[in-house]
Amino acid sequence: MVIIPKEKPVISNLNTYYLDINKLIEHYQGEIGSGGIFFRSDSARGVVFFDQDEILNGYFRDQEKELSGDDAIDRLMDTDFEHNYTVTIYNISLEEIYFWSSLPSAERIYKDLSTEFTDLEGLIKKMSAEKLTGFIEVTIEDEKEEGLIFISNGEIVGGSFSWVRNDPSLTRANIDQLIEKTKKSGGLFQVSRIPVSDGRKEKPTGFKGSEDSSHTLKMLEEFLGIFETFYATLKTKDSDFNSVIRKKFVESANQFDFLDPFAAEFEYTGRRIIFTGDAGDEELLTGVLTSVTELAQELGVLNEFKKYLAPWLSKYESKLAPLNIHF
User: Fold this and answer.
1) Residue 63: its H or E element
2) Which helix (DSSP H) or strand (DSSP E) does residue 59 occupy?
3) Residues 165, 103, 272, 288, CA torsion sign
4) Residue 79 is part of which domain span?
5) Mean pLDDT of all residues in the chain?
């Protein structure tokens, strides 16, 4: 599904007939940093999410097919458009962009709940108690105002509201305002869950054998990319990201030899991993995840980092389960 931010877009009503999508993304990576480009035609919908460094995810759906990830991105960025799209661009904060990029995989679990039978405050408490990772979409009865509430493992982590610009610091106040609006004017609620896997069949103990190695490196690239983006949002930083992660890997090299920067077996640069060592997939995952988790703990930001990480943890749950790593 394509969920559209409730705030005012950065720009709207562009037509793909006149656009180079690659250059458009490059421009807005520099202009706004992170966001989503939403595509709409009479017969198709799509979205591409990006941060300041790369394209994060995509989703495409028409009457014949549904695509996600690289396949959707390729379809939407192809200059020979199968559909003539109207394009709208929204600014999405770094704090929330990774959650947004997971929304297309969500599945609706409650539809058209009405304030006649339930209240929003009670619904939020129920979803929190059930440890939902997903979102609640709210439409005020007059349909002039809307809101989204993002929940990760039962904890509110953000939202989107039609009456304000995207500002994560105001989430709690805006949710309180949304609750009051539904009490006054009534409303409808849709609840969706982000599934615990991305739909690909995973081997429960899939760390042995070379066939999973490229998948493991991609998984770690996503993980380190999320931490790099999160680190950039910290207001107090002792040093740049490359320095702090290199220092941590040096400390971890006593336990995980491949992380020794001077051995040059494992290199993370430009959000890509180059690995030339002999460590197996399980050792790679354990070494990197343990090191970064310890670093986040040492920086006093582990709980905040976990909010960013929730969609990634859900996506790779079956691969992480055998490792017994606790975030």
Assistant:
1) none
2) strand 55-62
3) positive
4) 11-104
5) 85
